[in-house]
Amino acid sequence: MKKKIVALLFCVLFSLSASGSVFATGYTLTFSPPYAGSFRNSGTGAEADGQLTPWIQPSVATTPTTYFLVVDPRTEGDYSQITGEKVPATGVVSNVYNTVRRSLTYYPNYGGEGHRYCVGAYPSYTDFLAYTAIGNWEP
Q1: What residues contact 3, with CB distance under 8 A and at least 6 apart?
Q2: How many CB atoms lie within 10 A of CB 80?
Q3: 47-68 per-position pLDDT tens digit
Q4: Which uninterrupted H or E stretch holds 16?
Q5: Distance (Å, rounded) from C-alpha 75 to C-alpha 88?
Q6: pLDDT tens for residues 85-123?
Q7: In the chain, what are the domains?
Q8: 3-state secondary structure labels for all residues of 20-71
Q9: Which of 18, 23, 85, 96 has the most CB atoms at less than 10 Å from its CB?
């Protein structure tokens, strides 16, 4: 009986680790025309774990949207606090319209343990109707 419990526990732990982190952060971003000024930031930063495996996964299908991670503007020592710029930390993933998980790739010198990031996004096309993108992500 003890071996069965240990085997069951091992299977549960393995399935959790295989499916990715259980500590994903949610985002809700609302976009409204016009295209100029439509960039949105999740506003909720999350700390990178140093594994360099960031991803984004919408929960609902939406208008095609371009996603990337930006440096959390509240990060101490980050110059975007002064300039107001959005500092990208990953390459973009364009035309995301379904619920498939997408991997992101950090630029050099980003993604290390202890650094904080937010989701940045904007509509992939200039002509769009108002919509809300909802999903999960992990730095």
Answers
A1: none
A2: 15
A3: 898 888 999 999 999 999 999 9
A4: helix 2-18
A5: 13
A6: 678 999 999 999 999 999 999 999 888 888 889 999 999
A7: 23-138 (2.60.120.680)
A8: CCCCCEEEEEEECCCCCCCCEECCCCEECCCCCCCEEEECCCCCCEEEEEEE
A9: 96
What one-letter code names the amino acid at 107? Answer: Y
Q: Quick count: other Cβ atoms within 10 Å of Cβ 101?
A: 14
Radius of gyration of the chain (CA): 17
Tokens representing 32? 């409204």
- Match 């498939």 to its residue by tokens: 100
Residue with tokens 């996004």: 121
Query: Three-state DSSP class for 121?
Result: strand
